[in-house]
């Protein structure tokens, strides 16, 4: 019986959300486009979209050496901190722990998403 009431409650909330989006969606869409009109290409042709896509891809590709250099610096910093771990402050250890937990949480989230939002890996 509890499952049926939860389902009815969920349907009611979904209906409310759908009504809210139907009522406020177009105004939000227009406002969003107006606020970001400097980023909109005119005319929005397929050729222009393809050009922008290629520009984004190759710009990101060109940024890889800089990202690798930054990563190398970060790894060197971590190595230095590890060598001098006796001098490590509790704040630094706390920040490192929180960073590790955040990475683990992102990993777990990615795993769940990769399995189709299931926790066991089994889905119907």
From TrEMBL:
Presence of keyword Nucleus: no
GO annotation (BP), single: proton motive force-driven ATP synthesis
Source organism of this protein record: Corchorus capsularis (Jute)
Protein name: Mitochondrial ATP synthase subunit G protein
Recorded GO MF terms: proton transmembrane transporter activity
Coiled-coil blocks: none
Subcellular location: Mitochondrion membrane
Keyword field: ATP synthesis, CF(0), Hydrogen ion transport, Ion transport, Membrane, Mitochondrion, Transport
């Amino acid at each position: 019986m509890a499952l049926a009431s939860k389902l009815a409650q969920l349907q009611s909330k979904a209906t409310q959300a759908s009504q809210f989006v139907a009522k406020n969606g177009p105004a939000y869409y227009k406002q969003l486009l107006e606020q970001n009109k400097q980023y909109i290409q005119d005319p929005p042709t397929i050729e222009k979209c393809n050009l922008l896509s290629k520009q984004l891809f190759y710009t990101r590709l060109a940024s890889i050496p800089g990202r690798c250099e930054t990563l190398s610096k970060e790894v060197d910093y971590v190595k230095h901190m590890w060598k001098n771990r006796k001098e490590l402050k509790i704040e630094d250890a706390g920040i490192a722990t929180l960073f590790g937990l955040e990475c683990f949480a992102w990993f777990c989230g990615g795993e769940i998403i990769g399995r189709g939002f299931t926790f066991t890996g089994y889905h119907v």
